[in-house]
Amino acid sequence: xxxxTPLATAKVRxxxxxxxxxxxxxxxxxxxxAMYRTVLGEKxxxxxxxxxxxxxxxxxxxxxxxxxxxxxxxxxxxDFEKQxxxxxxxxxxxxxxxxxxxxxNIRRGLITRNVKxxxxxxxxRFGMIFSPALSREFRPYKPDPAPLLHICTTWGMQPDExxxxxxxxxDDVACGKRAGAFTCLLDETGRYxxxxxxxxxxxxxxxxxxLVEARSLLEKHFDLIP
Length: 226
Ligand SMILES: [Mg+2]
Known about the structure:
Layout: E1 12-14, E2 16-19, H1 32-40, H2 42-51, H3 58-63, H4 67-86, H5 94-103, E3 107-111, H6 116-126, E4 133-134, H7 146-155, E5 162-166, H8 169-179, E6 182-186, E7 206-208, H9 211-221, E8 222-224
Parallel strand pairs: 1-8, 2-3, 2-5, 3-4, 5-6, 6-7
Helix pairs in contact: 1-2, 1-4, 5-9
The structure holds magnesium ion.
């Protein structure tokens, strides 16, 4: 391979893409604020929300609770997730993007804070398998970089050869940046334009409003070479 004119900007090699599931590969259907309210109670919810303007880490909060209280909370979360599963819809552009990556032999992985059962159902509906696909059972979960680093090791790739795509700044972008990967935030509605997110610790390398746009971005900015 030769690089031509001095004006040509070298593209960075990208070998793998890791996706978040809920709200990224599937249309968001889980009513998270309602879930948090039910788990935490109105008073605690408002308190924690004011302390965490960029988003509540519900699983993290629950971890310090007594086993009984924890069990109850997980049951509520499971209920909300079950309702979400019943209404599961594939995100527009997801199949095309994944087909495109497959045509270039670029690896596809998945990391979710949802349970394995939800991933299994998603795989069934989507008709394409992500591998590895790490669910909540893999500890520690996002925003810890561990699941992404685990996928990189499995693939035999460096984190800076991989991109994390997700709709959550506090989970997906934080996990990706901590691991040293490229990050792409899917923000369909421009909700992250709010000043609330101005001072967040981790900023995405790219922001897109759709997975169709994510595909153009990958083609434009990266050398997709497995
Ligand atoms: Mg998500």
